[in-house]
Amino acid sequence: MIRSIKAKFLVGFLIIFSVSLLLLNHFVVRIVESSNENIITQDLIALKKNSNVYVKQMFMINHYASDEIYFQQMAKELVDELRHVSSSHVSAYSVQGDKLQSSAGFPLSREGDEDLRNALNGQTSFTVQYSNRAAEVYYSYPVEIDGKKVGILRFVKDFSLLYEQSRHILDFIFYVTIAIFAAAFLFSYILSRNISIPIVQLTKASTDVTNGNLDTRIGIRRRDEIGKLAHNFNLMIEKINRQIRTIERDRDRLNELNLHRKQFYDNVTHELKTPLTSILGYAQLIKENGQSDEAFFRKGMNHIIEESDRLHGMVVKLLELSKEASMEEAPQLVEAGSLLHGVCEGMAFKAERYKKTIECSAGHDLWVYANSEKLKQLFINLIDNAVKYGAAHTVIAVSGIPAADGIRFTVTNQGDTIPPDQWSKLFEPFYRAGPRNGDESGSRGLGLSICKAIVDEFQGTISIESVNQETTVTIVLPHHESTGEPA
Predict the structure, then answer these.
(1) Where does residue 136 fall: left (phi above 0), alpha (psi -120 to 50 degrees), or beta otherwise?
(2) Which end of the chain is more exposed for a tag (fewer CB within 10 A), N or C?
(3) How far is it, in rounded angstroms, from Cα 136 to Cα 76?
(4) What are the start and end residues of each CATH 3.30.565.10 domain in the chain?
């Protein structure tokens, strides 16, 4: 069984061309033979017509009682004249088939031929005889005078030239046909290779991909459909590779995220447990000894309040992260410069408590399309982070200015340098960076993730950069023209 496309192409083309060649040759031969037969027939009809005219003239000149006897007497003269007129061998026969006269060179052993037998029966007939590349036509017909058969004339006419020409025509047609079919077969062979070889390559490449080899490529550089197919195949493999790499990155990211989540929950559990333990401990001591020691009572109550405030802050951050405590206010045009100044003034007291100062240089007419409460929460989180993680006795620089890409807000603080490989990870919900000096390192992992969620909602961008112990968080929000007062 033939399995390959290449072999099927070749066998199919060979069968089609062979059958076509045989059929074409057969029909051409039949057409040429039919044409030759028509030519011979027309020529013999003319020959019979001319010879009858000559015979009738001879009978009109001389009248005999018996036309059959006169035909026998004038046979020699008739044969010689017709030989001269027709340029053919001529012989005359009696009504009974006896040979009366024959021109010189006429064969004497052909009385039993079919044409002569038909003439004896009153029919006009001819036969073609081939010998040594020569073609002779034997033509016999009964001679009738006044409706009475008086004898038989037989002509031998040479048609070798006609058949030779026909043979040359057939040979020419045959060789030209062979050449055409050979060229067509060669073209078909080249075409089949041109189609089958790329298909074989595609089959091998698809098999390699099925076996897991995604590095395979098809090196077909063509502009036709097969070239497009190969190009699309390579693009498909590249896309599969990209998808697999994306899946692998997502898998690694999920594994890392799960690890960070576990670390985060461990840290949250620890951080929640620590103030609760401290609160419970001081509450128990106050219950036992608070009435007798007023100073210890005040100290214990202050510690309980501080730890409760810290515990409350952590719970609020968790609620903000899960968006369960977020306010669903409809977005509107907000003048962010005034809002940022207000946040800086409100955060100044906390900055003083941490021995830091805030300098705000936000301009006016900084209109953005946002939720005012969420935008305020965004600024509070950023400045709160800068306060908590900045070094003591430093300045926290806050700015808001128009830029080519929108409204740009920056918050810069002095403190530990964050490695570049952790900059983007700081915005992940459960990511906890390495140790950094700060007053409230236990709450790290929540604030920036909340900020990124808010910025994404406002269709802006947020980034962080830490160089030479200076950390800057940059936010860019789309700028909008205002037609009214700040929200």
Answers:
(1) beta
(2) N
(3) 23
(4) 329-477
- The whole-angstrom separation of Cα 114 and Cα 395 is 134
pLDDT tens digits, one per residue of 57-114: 877 776 655 677 888 888 888 888 888 888 888 988 888 888 888 886 655 445 557 8
In DSSP terms, which residues pair with 397 in a beta bridge? 359, 412
Residue 267 near residue 438, CB atoms below 8 Å: no
CATH top-level class of 217-325? mainly alpha
**Structure confidence at residue 361 as a pLDDT band (50, 70, 90):** very high
pTM: 0.40
Distance CA 220, CA 232 (A): 11
Range(s) of the chain covered by CATH 3.30.450.20:
5-169
Torsional class of 5: left (φ above 0), alpha (ψ -120 to 50), beta (otherwise): alpha
CATH of 329-477 among 3.90.1150.10, 3.20.20.105, 3.30.565.10, 3.40.50.9100: 3.30.565.10
Q: At what angle do helices 372-389 and 336-353 cross, to 10 degrees?
A: 30
Overall CATH class of domain 5-169: alpha beta
pLDDT tens digits along 204-230: 888 888 887 877 777 777 777 777 888
Burial of 47 (0-12, 13-18, 19+ CB in 10 A): buried
Query: What is the chain's Cα-based Rg?
Result: 59
